Amino acid sequence: MSFPHLLEPLDLGFTQLKNRVLMGSMHTGLEEEKGGFEKLAAFYKERAAGGCGLIVTGGIAPNFRGRLAPHACQLSFPWQVKKHRIVTKAVHEADGKICMQILHAGRYGYHPFSQAPSKIKSPITPFTPSKMSSRQVAGTIKDYASSAALAKKAGYDGVEVMGSEGYLINQFISSRTNKRTDEWGGSFVQRARFPLEIVKAIREKVGKEFIIIFRLSMLDLVDNGSTWDEVVKLAKWLEREGVSIINTGIGWHEARVPTIATSVPRGAFSWVTEKLKSEVSVPLIATNRINTPEIGESIIASGQADMVSMARPFLADAEFVNKAAAGQSELINTCIGCNQACLDHTFSMKRATCLVNPRACYETEINFTPTQHKKRLAVMGAGPAGMAFSVYAASRGHEVVLFEAKNEVGGQFNLARKIPGKEEFDETIRYFNNQMKLHKVELRLNTRLDLDVLANEKFDEVIVASGVVPRALDLPGFDSPKVVDYQQVLKGEVYIGEKVALIGAGGIGFDMAHFLCERESSTLQPDKWLEQWGIDKTYQHPGGLTEESEHKPDREVYLLQRKTTKMGKGLGKTTGWIHRSVLKQHKVNMKTGVSYEKFDTEGLHIKVGEESEVLRVDNVVLCAGQESNRTLVDDMKSTGLPVHLIGGVDVAAELDAKRAIRQGAELAMAI
Hints:
InterPro entries: Aldolase_TIM (IPR013785), FAD/NAD-bd_sf (IPR036188), FAD/NAD-binding_dom (IPR023753), NADH:flavin_oxidoreductase (IPR051793), OxRdtase_FMN_N (IPR001155)
Keywords: Flavoprotein, FMN, Iron, Iron-sulfur, Metal-binding, Oxidoreductase
CATH topology of the largest domain: TIM Barrel
Largest sheet: 8 strands, parallel, barrel
Oligomer: single chain
Strand order of the largest sheet: 3-4-5-8-9-10-11-12
CATH superfamily of the largest domain: Aldolase class I
Number of domains: 3
Strand content: 15-25%
Shape: globular
Number of helices: 22
Number of strands: 27
Protein name: 2,4-dienoyl-CoA reductase
CATH class of the largest domain: Alpha Beta
Structural class: alpha/beta
Domain FAD/NAD(P)-binding: 376-653
Organism: Shewanella japonica
Distance between the termini: 37 Å
């Protein structure tokens, strides 16, 4: 498939972008690391060389109080310019363009010096901001302009002004957070003064031939957010003040609606960008859950937007655009929207990377150079760890034979992709399948690697990636055919009744509850998904919210855990709340502090504290973790060959594809 609209240049008058693809802003953590700007330069350079039309950096504060965290990056002084030049030089050497995002955290600042239009604490930070004085407001506007001027001096092609996602500018715009009675509050005209004065001041400082992108919150997804009429007015005023491009912002960080997780339908919010398209003439960028060139092409070709923004897809594959241009979209390592190695890392103060691409943000540290000592390697198990190792090792020149006892590759991903909202895992299996063909990995399906094979063929080393098996529980009645494990359910090997108890409330338990309650995935039905989460496409209410649809669950499900801690405490930092919300929508009964006694014809006998109870269920599904599948490990070691364990067979923690793929990559680099 060709992508003529996606790859068409965009003329901004004083400069031209080589295509319609924007690499959206994302914080990597390299901005604060020692020597991080050199690593950041390598990261961005690969994306520029990979064909991206325009890159936007992670958010850089215009002053100290605007920082996201105490040691977060800012650009306020001339001596700070030097390190930014390392980045811009690298991008320009690769024939790319790059803008610096200016972001003032406002009340989202994770430090006691945060400021906001009003003294109102955010629900996602522990600090209450101080109210900005009129003088401080005026000073902050100057700081934005000074930061933009320094960005120009550092070699950036432009700046993006972060006016969405609930940060400072958004806080001024919305009556939800702006309770001021002076010239910066009250009517919408006065609340909108702050962003307009910022853009005006920046344009005066940097001149006409400098890109200014404004990230406009088109859909706040919070109560008392902006009305559609206010969004349109502000867009027109921004155009008048000289912005070059308007980027779409979706949802405040405190919104209780998922906006970028894997369960969000692809391109779920392009309709709101299209809604603004007829109101302004400045180019518009659509964003959120656009992860394939096919979706990007469709959005632009249909007239919904002039560009598409993709952030995490460029973590997954630096060569995204080049592969699309070469007609090789099947070779793109697609972002699955899991958040596990990017946003979860960022919000835990770790360096961001990517579950499906462990090289992301490690371009100077993880590289697969041609081997000087070619080896013949036997790999047992074609799950995430085995596939990743095989591809990376073969790319270095090793001869790799991958053995898989089943008739398909993918391992646990074949189960994960059956969960509603996790259909994207298909893409990772497709990617590795194609990479194995490209790098000539010899794949032997329906073949178990055993001692006979090793006796008849010559291998230099053995890599065991045989994964995990579900953990069984030895309790009275648990040998009943009505007590099954999660793998049997997902494989369709057993019949499950209308009343079910799930033992174990980790990630597997939550996924199983979702699977049993939602027989038709709403992720594959965008309008149904929008209705499910109370998003109003007609935009009749401020913030774009309406009532969530009433949902009749397909089954009566109990989710049980032994621990007395909060249900789902160990889930992903940025996605756990989504999983809990979904189960609440499906009316799943969640019980903590449960001990299990037996299963019989009455049902599952449990105790919660000192209270005994019988759950009259048709089935019990075991989701109580897993154990390493080490059946043949000792056999492999008995051969005397070097044996390496990677993935679940090494550590059978909560299913962890991020660790499995990274282990495969690191071993392939070292072997």
